[in-house]
Design goal:
Low-confidence stretches: 42-71
Number of helices: 14
Strand content: 25-35%
Mean pLDDT: 84
Number of strands: 33
Helix content: 25-40%
Largest sheet: 8 strands, antiparallel
Radius of gyration: 25 Å
CATH topology of the largest domain: Rossmann fold
CATH superfamily of the largest domain: P-loop containing nucleotide triphosphate hydrolases
CATH architecture of the largest domain: 3-Layer(aba) Sandwich
């Protein structure tokens, strides 16, 4: 094994941050970047008239609304580790891009609001994490505001997410009585000051909980802390690395991202226990990150990161070996050889050229429409990575073009936005009107916004009668009969795959029963099988 390659792999942490809206994900992301020295001043989300924005929000619509609607990638160093942070949208109506980005991460930091604990979007995102048994560390945010008792928060996590909790820090009060946290991992008292919003907060090593320093510093809250910690240690779970790595147990930290309190505490533990880049499955075998030959998989396409050039960037996770500038790789779906001269690394929309990259790193490749989500690359062996899915949309709209002479531009725009996973566009087997499908309804606004902003196409949407979507496969003779009997419900997606759009869940169930030799799939696997 190449010692240098092993060293580079072992020091990398590729992770995503997930949360429900307003739990503080963007604030935590920026504090992590500050910790790593990647930025020197946090942006602020101020709403429509803000003149400064979160670094991770770059789309026009994100800046206007003060929300994240697309995923971004940020790389930064921390304590000798190389961190690859995949920031996911936090708005309630997110796209399947959010889901798909999770497939490129090796672990997750879950942010919870202490007033609400586990919320609906957190549950949906955790379902995707469950598909790959991803390790999850939990950061309970906003402890300087009043919220649920910590024990209730732990109970909520265990009940709603079926995750065993292991608190590694414990809060001392909350709201205006929040005094800090006790690090159960290191027997250390971390003191909070409302006056010190950005600096390193005071740390006080404690011999044990009977240490008289506790009474001097915490006064009447000292005995409360002693009682809580004794209860947690006796009745709670111990950290088991195997359970954490298998996604069955979550270490929990408490703090305030806005005040930068508890963030370093959590991050220090995260880099120690989170997994380095993991093996990735292919159709034929599992690829180890320590293999010498370069391999990679495209998990995201982003059009028009630079609107002036209508560029299209493929986000590729390096899965094994070493990427080197100018190297030749095989693009396995097309069989073509590509020379990668201009790959980039990311800091949100800021890009810079990269000479070398290692497993776990995310590199950008200018695709010019040639690369699709799920495409695999390698130096030689024909490999097709799996685990990069499309999810059946849950909401549907019909597209109407305001200027019929822009139909070609509409088709181009929808094709590109479909290929990057922002939306799914379906062409009917009978008729001409596109049907758009999305996981979250906000994506319809995003699509109209981007069609106008990036493709100069004015369109509007009306309701469509469909409630569900399934991709259909099966023997050709059965498919032929199925097509003739269900023509009004059949569509082709941007890849040319057959999709059935149902008018109700009941009707879908009946159709599935009537055609037992066909498969009706709610997810579609992207692999780079040869065209």
């Amino acid at each position: 094994m190449d010692k240098q390659l092993k060293k580079e792999v072992d020091k990398r942490r590729t992770f995503a941050i997930i949360s429900h809206p307003d739990a503080g994900k963007t604030t935590l992301t920026e504090k992590l970047l500050l910790k790593g020295g990647a930025i020197h001043e946090a942006g602020e989300i101020k709403g429509r008239k803000a003149d400064r924005f979160a670094l991770s929000d770059w789309m026009t619509m994100e800046k206007e609304r003060g929300i994240s609607v697309t995923s971004s990638v940020m790389q930064f160093p921390y304590r000798g580790y190389e961190m690859n942070l995949l920031d996911t949208p936090g708005h309630r109506d997110f796209s399947e891009d959010t889901y798909r980005v999770l497939t490129a991460a090796d672990s997750v930091i879950m942010v919870l609001d202490n007033a609400n604990a586990v919320e609906q979007q957190t549950k949906k995102l955790m379902e995707v994490c469950r598909m790959r048994d991803m390790p999850v560390i939990t950061f309970v945010n906003k402890m300087d505001r009043h919220g649920m008792p910590p024990l209730d928060i732990l109970e909520d996590i265990e009940k709603e997410l079926d995750l065993e909790t292991v608190p590694l820090s414990w809060p001392i009060g909350m709201g205006d009585r929040f005094r800090g946290t006790y690090n159960l991992f290191r027997d250390e008292l971390h003191l909070f000051s409302h006056a010190d919003m950005e600096g390193e907060h005071e740390r006080l090593p404690i011999e044990d909980l009977d240490d008289p320093q506790l009474d001097e510093v915490l006064r009447d809250q000292a005995d409360d802390l002693r009682f809580d910690v004794e209860l947690v240690r006796e009745a709670g779970n111990e950290l088991e690395m195997e359970k954490y790595r298998d996604g069955q147990q979550t270490p929990v930290f408490f703090g305030s991202a806005l005040s930068n309190f508890g963030v370093g505490d959590m991050l220090d533990t995260f880099v120690e226990i989170a997994p380095s880049p993991q093996p990735r499955p292919t159709v034929t075998r599992t690829v180890s990150p320590y293999e010498d030959d370069f391999t990679g998989v495209a998990f995201k396409i982003q059009a028009n990161m630079d609107p002036k050039h209508h560029d299209r960037m493929a986000f590729v996770r390096v899965c094994s070996g070493r990427f080197e500038k100018g190297m030749e790789v095989i693009h396995h779906r097309t069989g073509e050889t590509m020379r990668l001269n201009n790959a980039t690394t990311f800091m949100a929309q800021d890009r810079e050229g990269v000479d070398t990259a290692y497993p776990g790193d995310i590199i950008g490749i200018m695709s010019h429409g040639r690369v699709k989500i799920g495409d695999s690359f390698s130096a030689s062996e024909p490999l097709h990575f799996t685990g990069v899915p499309s999810f059946a949309p849950e909401h549907f709209r019909k597209v109407h073009l305001d200027d019929p002479f822009r139909s070609k531009h509409l088709g181009k725009g929808l094709k590109q936005l479909s290929e990057e996973g922002a939306i799914q566009a379906f062409r009917p087997a009978r008729g001409n009107d596109y049907i758009l499908g999305a996981v979250g309804e906000l994506q319809f606004d995003v699509t109209l916004d981007r069609l106008e902003d990036e493709y100069n196409v004015d369109a509007h949407l009306t309701g469509a009668p469909y409630t569900c979507c399934r991709w259909v496969k099966g023997p050709s003779e059965d498919l032929e009969d199925f097509r003739s009997e269900n023509l009004d419900n059949l569509f082709e997606d941007a890849d040319g795959d057959l999709a059935y759009l149902g008018l109700s869940d009941y009707r879908l169930e009946r159709t599935v029963e009537e055609w037992p030799r066909l498969t009706f799939a709610s997810t579609k696997e992207h692999t780079s099988e040869r065209e």
